[in-house]
Design a protein that fits this description.
The protein is mostly beta strands. The protein is about 0% helix and about 50% strand. The protein is built from no helices and 11 strands. Strand 4 and strand 5 form a beta hairpin. It is globular and about 40 Å long.
């Protein structure tokens, strides 16, 4: 069982930055690929970025490439999402997710993920 707790959301002006954190419980953190998804009002939950179990590889949705950076700290059992050059269209609830996976891969499909955090609101004003 893994518990995920997100923090760091808030209100920011367009062009600003935020850093989200996802603190995980459990001793098997390295067994999970980690990802961030987001869901805007009236829209489906969508993949934003993911990082492999080892942290060696990362993947990004086209909409955030070059602006967002995912990282993981195994010692702190935490995943981070650094968001720069934020746009109003980035406004959403951001969710951290864990996928117990044997390979060094990242799924972009939300149904593949085993555990989810409660979400943190990010609002970008124009």
């Amino acid at each position: 069982q893994v518990q995920l707790v997100e923090s760091g959301g808030g209100l920011v002006q367009a062009g600003g930055s935020l850093r989200l954190s996802c603190a995980a419980s459990g001793r098997t953190f390295s067994s999970y690929a980690m990802a961030w998804f987001r869901q805007a009002p009236g829209k489906e939950r969508e993949f934003v970025t993911g990082i492999t179990r080892s942290g060696a590889n990362t993947y990004y949705a086209d909409s955030v490439k070059g602006r967002f950076t995912i990282s993981r700290d195994s010692a702190k059992i935490t995943v981070y999402l650094q968001m720069n050059s934020l746009k109003p269209e980035d406004t959403a609830v951001y969710y951290c997710a864990a996928d117990r996976i044997l390979s060094q891969a990242v799924s972009t499909t939300k149904d593949d993920y085993d555990y989810w955090g409660q979400g943190t609101q990010v609002t970008v004003s124009s």
